[in-house]
Amino acid sequence: MRTPRHAALRLLALTAATATAFALVPAPTSSAAVPLERKGHVEQECYEPHADVATSARGGQVHDHREISAAEQRAVELRTERILSRTSARQQRAAVAAPIPVYVHVMAAKNGAGNVTDAQVAQQVAVLNEGFGGQENAAAANTGFTFTLAGTDRFFNDTWHRDGSSAKYRKATRLGGANALNIWLVDFNYLGIATFPWDYARNPGVDGIRVQFSSLPGGSTANYDQGKTATHEAGHWLGLYHTFQGGCTATNDEVGDTPAQSSPTSGCPAGRDSCTLPGLDPIHNYMDYSFDACYDQFTPGQSTRANQMFTAYRG
Ligand SMILES: [Zn+2]
């Protein structure tokens, strides 16, 4: 279990627009940050808020994804190995060769809050390509994945904007097949939430990632405004765990070249070393919780895993 249940829920910094929207008055367009303490919603679909190690005075928001127990983690590995044992290397290469179509669903409020621009959407897709292409650090892996915007649609629904009736709106709006990355841009208690590839067959209608709209490039979420939340969530969508999955264990995130971590990183603390196992914490890895400016890489091991996961479940 990677998340200490006893730890306090992370406090959230909501924008002024969000805070006033709660009071059911027209929201201003100002994005000045107003810290507001609020317990996170407990998601109804096996998601839950992450406890977090570093609640700064500013507050902040966290990435999240479905909780995975150690037993389920093991079962997923065995299932994936079985599928891949029936798949040739040629088939694996072919599976990831095609660009991933990206469908962006802008879930704006009736008053227009969250209605990000087409330019921001285009920049977001560019950020995905930079990250998965290994363009941010010479040591970063080029995973081979490329993303192409296949469509943007816009909805003006206050409930959906707040991620209400989440399963319903996702099923109503999702586009494409298993290989299509659907991104719903909402205003909620998280930076992002992702589904895993091995869950696609069981529940294809909700497959994709939900991302805080203000985390897009040019958004208003301080320190998380370069679009790398979507990179992190797309990592989950391709089967990657957090680098702190499993804590200080050899199994950890099932990837050999990401040193074990006891807990999520906050900010960008150079030299952090939270486990006695070899290696410093991978604070620059997209699958940690560091600030956007700190993120610059997936590892070769993560690239291999994501490619295998895509082949097994999305190819
Ligand atoms: Zn995550």
Distance between the termini: 30 Å
The name of the CATH superfamily reads Collagenase (Catalytic Domain)
From the alpha-carbon coordinates, what is the Rg to the nearest angstrom? 18 Å
Bound molecules: zinc ion
The strand order across the widest sheet is 3-7-8-6-4-5
Biggest beta sheet summary: 6 strands, mixed
Note the run of SSEs as H and E: EHEEHHEHEHHEEEHH
Percent helix among the residues? 25-40%
Structural class: alpha/beta
Oligomer: single chain
Low-confidence stretches: 1-62
Kindly identify the CATH topology: Collagenase (Catalytic Domain)
Q: Under the CATH scheme, which class? A: Alpha Beta
Shape annotation: globular
Q: How many distinct helices? A: 8
Report what the structure shows.
There is one protein chain. The protein is α/β, with parallel strands linked by helices. The chain has a single domain, classed as Collagenase (Catalytic Domain) (3-Layer(aba) Sandwich), CATH 3.40.390. It is built from 8 helices and 8 strands; from the N terminus they run E-H-E-E-H-H-E-H-E-H-H-E-E-E-H-H. The chain has helices at 16-22, 70-85, 89-97, 118-132, 158-161, 166-173, 228-237, 300-313; strands at 12-15, 33-36, 62-65, 100-108, 147-156, 181-186, 190-194, 209-212. Strand 4 (100-108), helix 4 (118-132) and strand 5 form a beta-alpha-beta unit. Helix 3 packs across helix 8 and helix 4 packs across helix 7 (228-237). The radius of gyration is 18 Å and the shape is globular. The two termini are 30 Å apart. Bound molecules: zinc ion (ZN). Zinc ion (ZN) is lined by residues 63-65, 232, 236, 242. The site of zinc ion has 6 residues, from strand 3 and helix 7.
